[in-house]
Amino acid sequence: MIRVVLPAHLRGLVKVHDEIELEIQGPVTQRSVVDALEARYPMLCGTIRDHLTQQRRPFLRFFACEEDLSHELLDAPLPEAVASGEEPLLIIGAIAGG
Amino acid sequence: MSGVRVLVGTRKGAFILTSDGKRQKWDVSGPHFAGWEVYHMKGSPADPARLYASQTSGWFGQLIQRSSDGGKTWEPVDNKFVYDGVPGTHQWYDGTPHPWEFKRVWHLEPALHDPDTVYAGAEDAALFRTTDGGKSWQELSGLRGHGSGPHWQPGAGGMCLHTIILDPRNPERIYIAISAAGAFRTDDGGKSWQPINKGLYSKYIPNPTAEVGHCVHHIAMHSSRPGVLFMQKHWDVMRSDNAGESWEKISGNLPTDFGFVIDVHAHEPETIYVVPIKSDSEHFPMDGKLRVYRSRKGGNEWEELAKGLPERDCYVNVLRDAMAVDTLDKCGVYFGTTGGQVYASADAGDSWAPIVRDLPGVLSVEVQTLS
């Protein structure tokens, strides 16, 4: 079981107040985590990554274990602490706009 | 008993204002979709309980929300807006080619007789349609495929398709407007389109009478006269009596003919409303006084409507989709400001009062008259 924390606007959209727990089959990567999120909450499609290119939206970042993982390859394994559920994957809206 | 429901889209969510037919006391619900920009929200003429909202964000992209109970509850529907085929390019601000990229939906226009059919006007400019209540969207690509598409250029707010008008007598005829491409019309249900900009004069573009390239801010039509159109252009208030084939200037005695909104009285098709804005570099009213102007003669002769509106120190704007009318007798007129006020007149504009004063900046106002 892995843990994911969504930004507040997306927590409101999917009507959860806390972190989300997900069961991931196979390698735990950015792609597999977002796949699992979108499978459970279809309204997230297009909000974290582009519908067509599947690229992360520019003003979102992926953090875990005090590291910015945003520019890691989509299929690169996330840290073991995330895969084991010890640490959450943080999806964060960039602080932008003044 | 009759009543009205005012649908307000703002920079930070949607609000629904309801009143009985007297339109004196109002209930306010919201914010719905708190923190998100709601560019537009509109109800189906075929089923007033069915509402659609365009919820958007620079961070999280586009969502479309649907309500089947008049806005009490909402469900997100499909948000995948994909341009048909190879998108191609339009012109960027500097005149270089720029790929067509979907950014947001500016306007949702539910069909007149089917609550599941809705048209969506997008930035970058394109027209989409759903026929299954928002479960899927398809582009009517004949518009963007019009030969002039590569020459379209964005206005200051982006290259948005912001106006969609459905002809109540001819289901094959639709009018749309794009900043800053101009107005277009289809007579075959969206397969093919023609620019309808003859008579527009825009001195700030290389060819002031070009077929396309005009910054049309909004167009309004009275349902009893679908061939008569009223336009607020960047500068100039215009009218057409031949379905857009040609336009004539009707600015007349307006103190300034820059502005964004324009609308038509529900029962008097020659009575029209605008909110004059000082200039394109100063997006606020003249002299700090918020004013609506009304013409009862279809233009040229305008009267200032001031009763109940701010007399001083008012420097808000009224954006293109932020005025609407109800169909009660007397006709109600509503508009919202970038300062978060929504003003209502229950006497066709003779007097005004704010329904709310402190919402986030208002992007759009629509009204449903409920029986």
If you had to describe this structure to a student in words, what would you say it looks like?
The complex is a heterodimer of chains A (98) and B (371). Helix content of chain A is 22%, strand content 19%. Chain A is α+β, with helices and mostly antiparallel strands and 98 residues long. Chain A has a single domain, classed as Ubiquitin-like (UB roll), CATH 3.10.20.30. In chain A, strand 3 and strand 4 (67-68) form a beta hairpin. The N and C termini of chain A lie far apart (37 Å). A four-stranded antiparallel sheet of chain B has the order 3-2-1-30, with no helix packed on it. In chain B, strands 4-5-6-7 form a four-stranded antiparallel sheet, with no helix packed on it. In chain B, a hairpin with a 7-residue loop joins strand 14 (160-166) and strand 15 (174-179). Chain B contains no helices and 30 strands. Chain B is mainly beta. The A-B interface holds A 7-10, 12-13, 43, 45-48, 50-52, 57, 59-60, 93-94, 96-97 and B 33-36, 57-63, 76, 79-80, 82.
